[in-house]
């Protein structure tokens, strides 16, 4: 029986090794001497593993499983990892904005808003046909008048922007529906493509990061070093970027592998359901989907499942070991 | 209590309305583009035996029947070429637009008709629900019961803890469709163990009794239920277990032990109730998650349920059906959240009911 520390270290190195192998396989997929993942070999249909020229067997259409797995790793690297990163960036930005500005700290001069409204009204007036022009003009004049009155009042010279409320509202909208259903409905709307899937995954996953960033920002905003920076008269953006973001990033960094794992789960599930990625893109989920046509072909289930499970376990292992440090 | 309910609904209903409107406008707006309509509609018509004029007429009739000939929203903008660029012209369409018609129908409980077979969506949805509801409710009850039992077991027997917790962490990493496929491979495989049917529902036969039919449908839903439970149970038990361990360190537990309460009673009567709060959060998140999980499970086990209906109509761009599925799930989520707050109050009366 090894000591727990040694075992943990061993597990950690195993996890890192697996992820590095995955990255290596994904990046070198096009250079390896493999058949294309969507090219059928009609002489070898539903071959079990260890047949010559198809080490891990073929599926019902004669596609090579090994090539599918390696190109699937490439798809995962090109979809889930960028999506997790961009979701983390977007979430950090919106969450820290919400945490820093709160509901009343960011104030916009009312004059700016007024000019924007008047300009917008004017621009739409120009493009409108004559009878409605009068109507819009009246509206613009009324709005301008109201704004002028508002700006005359000394206390209303600036308007607070409820950043926190707005971000929370956005999060509430996005979490009102389970993520899988939302992604399914959104992915069905557009043409399947890798970029579209990336955008959809980013848009649905950022609330997780945003909530962490917001909570951390709210906690550290009242710490003395932030107050000191504020008292020194540093501009807000320097406080946010130079002083607050490093400590926020520390708490985001830990959850990043879990985010990648969750997004791999969604990506493979979507490919399994046949939504999201274009049909010729290789993916672990797609190999598993072909297994439904031939339930006795165990290699169609075992190999991709092993890849998914190992990747998930490795990502979790890295998360936990970095939490314990 | 009533004030709480009203204020919760006042907060949650606008959120549901906005997200549904966004999905409606996105789906209709993107499919209303002429190229899209050409592609999807021309496939239904015999293109090569008709003249282009007939094609256009038939397409127009189809669009009219689906209500797609109306403008999309109250206001529409159109780019017109003007001198030195493009001018946007805004037009007020009045209430004769797709959004208004859809919203009024929704308020009346009329969800429209399916694009694919022109059946009323309410019929399709209610038929699918008769299959999904028993599955999800069964899974929910099983998860709650098994989670309770397993948490108590873990609290009582220290020795099994490392093994069980490791196993739970392992199960937690598996995506649902992998679990379902592995179960199929292990337990419904003619080459290995052929214990359970691989797909489908029980066939209704006239000659058999009601009890036999009930048993048969139970037998058919073992694997779907089991895969839903296997995926959702681990995180539930892990959370509840951690909360329970935290509670067992509290001072009142020490007091209870010091006055000589039996260890099992300390856990069940004293600690478990206080550890209930995270469990309630999880259980209410579970209801919509089960509906989403039903998508995968119903596809794999070929059950004609809600999740499969949503997935298939999403793939076929049958938007009235997808939208009503989303409406239904958002409503379930809403009710679950309100229920959670009420249960919080029941579990811990110190918590104030506020929106």
UniProtKB/TrEMBL annotation, chain A:
UniProt cross-references to InterPro entries, sorted A to Z: BP-dependent_transpt_permease, MetI-like, MetI-like_sf
Q: Which GO terms describe its biological process?
A: transmembrane transport
For this protein, the parts annotated as crossing the membrane are 81-101, 108-127, 133-150, 166-189, 195-213, 254-277, 297-315
Q: How does it sit in the membrane?
A: Multi-pass membrane protein
Q: Does the keyword Transport apply?
A: yes
CDD domains in UniProt: TM_PBP2
Output the superkingdom of the source species: Bacteria
What are the record keywords, sorted? Cell membrane, Membrane, Transmembrane, Transmembrane helix, Transport
Q: Which residues form the ABC transmembrane type-1 domain?
A: 73-319
For this record, the Gene Ontology CC terms, alphabetical, are: plasma membrane
Q: Where in the cell is it found?
A: Cell membrane
Which Pfam families does the protein's record reference? BPD_transp_1 (PF00528)
Family recorded in the similarity comment: Belongs to the binding-protein-dependent transport system permease family.
What protein am I looking at? Answer: ABC transporter permease
- Naturally occurring in which organism (per UniProt): Hymenobacter metallicola
UniProtKB/TrEMBL annotation, chain B:
Per the record, the major location class is: membrane
Q: Which GO CC annotations does the UniProt entry carry?
A: plasma membrane
Q: Which domain of life is it from?
A: Bacteria
Q: Does Zinc-finger count among this protein's keywords?
A: no
What InterPro entries does the record point to? MetI-like, MetI-like_sf
PROSITE patterns in the record, alphabetically?
Answer: ABC_TM1
| Keyword Ribosomal protein appears in the UniProt entry | no
Which SUPFAM superfamilies does the UniProt entry name for this protein? Answer: MetI-like
The entry's localization annotation reads: Cell membrane
Gene Ontology BP, a term: transmembrane transport
What's the protein's topology in the membrane? Multi-pass membrane protein
Ordered alphabetically, the record's keywords are: Cell membrane, Membrane, Transmembrane, Transmembrane helix, Transport
> Where does the record place the ABC transmembrane type-1 domain?
129-340
Q: Which Pfam family, any one of them, does this sequence belong to?
A: BPD_transp_1
Q: Where are the transmembrane segments?
A: 12-30, 133-155, 167-188, 218-238, 275-301, 321-345
Q: Which family does it belong to?
A: Belongs to the binding-protein-dependent transport system permease family.
Q: What is this protein called?
A: ABC transporter permease
**Source organism of this protein record:** Hymenobacter metallicola
């Amino acid at each position: 029986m090894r000591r727990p520390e040694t075992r943990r270290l061993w597990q950690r190195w195993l996890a890192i090794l697996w992820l590095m192998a995955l990255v290596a396989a994904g990046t070198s997929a096009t250079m390896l001497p493999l058949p294309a993942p969507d090219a059928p070999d009609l002489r070898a249909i539903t071959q079990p593993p260890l047949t010559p020229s198809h080490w891990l067997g073929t599926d019902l259409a004669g596609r090579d499983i090994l090539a599918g797995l390696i190109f699937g790793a490439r798809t995962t690297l090109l979809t889930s990892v960028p999506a997790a990163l961009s979701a983390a960036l977007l979430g950090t930005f919106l969450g820290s904005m919400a945490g820093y500005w709160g509901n009343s700290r960011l104030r916009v001069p009312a004059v700016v808003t007024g000019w924007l409204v008047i300009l917008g009204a004017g621009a739409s007036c120009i493009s409108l046909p004559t009878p409605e022009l009068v109507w819009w003009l009246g509206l613009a004049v009324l709005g301008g008048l109201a704004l002028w009155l508002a700006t005359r009042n000394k206390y209303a010279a600036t308007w607070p922007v409820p950043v926190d409320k707005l971000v929370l509202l956005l999060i509430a909208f996005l979490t009102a529906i389970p993520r899988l259903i939302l992604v399914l409905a959104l992915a069905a709307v557009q043409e399947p493509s890798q970029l579209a899937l990336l955008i959809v995954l980013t848009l649905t996953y950022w609330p997780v990061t945003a909530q962490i960033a917001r909570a951390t920002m709210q906690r550290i905003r009242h710490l003395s070093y932030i107050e000191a920076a504020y008292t020194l008269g540093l501009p807000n953006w320097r406080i946010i970027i130079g002083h607050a973001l490093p400590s926020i990033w520390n708490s985001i960094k830990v959850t990043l592998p879990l985010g990648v794992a969750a997004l791999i789960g969604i990506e493979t599930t979507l490919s399994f359901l046949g939504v999201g990625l274009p049909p010729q893109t290789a993916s672990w989920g797609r190999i598993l989907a072909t297994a439904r046509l031939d339930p006795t072909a165990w290699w169609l289930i075992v190999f991709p499942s092993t890849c998914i499970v190992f990747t998930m376990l490795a990502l979790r292992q890295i998360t936990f070991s970095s939490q314990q440090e | 209590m009533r004030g709480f309910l009203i204020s919760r609904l006042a907060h949650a209903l606008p959120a549901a309305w906005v997200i549904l409107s966004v999905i409606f406008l996105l789906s209709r707006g993107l499919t209303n583009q002429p190229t899209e309509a050409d592609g999807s509609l021309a496939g239904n018509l015999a293109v090569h035996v008709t003249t282009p004029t007939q094609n256009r007429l038939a397409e127009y009739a189809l669009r009219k029947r689906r209500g797609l000939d109306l403008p999309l929203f109250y206001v529409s903008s159109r780019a017109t070429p003007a001198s030195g660029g493009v001018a946007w012209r805004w037009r007020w369409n009045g209430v004769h637009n797709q959004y208004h018609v859809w919203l009024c129908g929704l308020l009346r409980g009329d969800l429209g008709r399916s694009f694919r077979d022109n059946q009323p969506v309410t019929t399709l949805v209610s038929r699918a629900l008769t299959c999904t509801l028993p599955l999800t409710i069964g899974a929910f009850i099983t998860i709650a019961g098994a989670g309770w039992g397993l948490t108590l077991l873990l609290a009582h027997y220290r020795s099994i803890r490392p093994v069980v917790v490791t196993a739970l962490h392992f199960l937690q990493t598996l995506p649902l469709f992998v679990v379902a496929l592995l179960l199929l491979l292990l337990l419904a495989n003619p080459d290995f163990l052929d214990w359970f049917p691989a797909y489908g529902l029980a066939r209704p036969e006239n000659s058999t009794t009601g009890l036999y039919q009930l048993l048969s449908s139970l037998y058919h839903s073992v694997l779907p239920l089991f895969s839903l439970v296997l995926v959702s149970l681990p995180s539930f038990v892990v959370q509840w277990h951690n909360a329970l361990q935290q509670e067992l360190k509290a001072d009142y537990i020490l007091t209870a032990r010091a006055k000589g309460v039996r260890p099992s009673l300390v856990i069940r009567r004293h600690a478990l109730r206080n550890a209930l709060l995270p469990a309630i959060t999880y259980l209410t998140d579970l209801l919509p998650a089960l509906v989403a999980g039903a998508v995968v499970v119903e596809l794999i086990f070929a059950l004609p349920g809600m999740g499969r209906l949503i997935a298939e109509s999403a793939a076929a761009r049958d938007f009235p059906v997808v939208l009503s599925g989303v409406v239904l799930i958002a409503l379930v989520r809403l009710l679950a959240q309100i229920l959670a707050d009420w249960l919080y109050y029941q579990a811990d009366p110190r918590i104030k009911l506020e929106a």
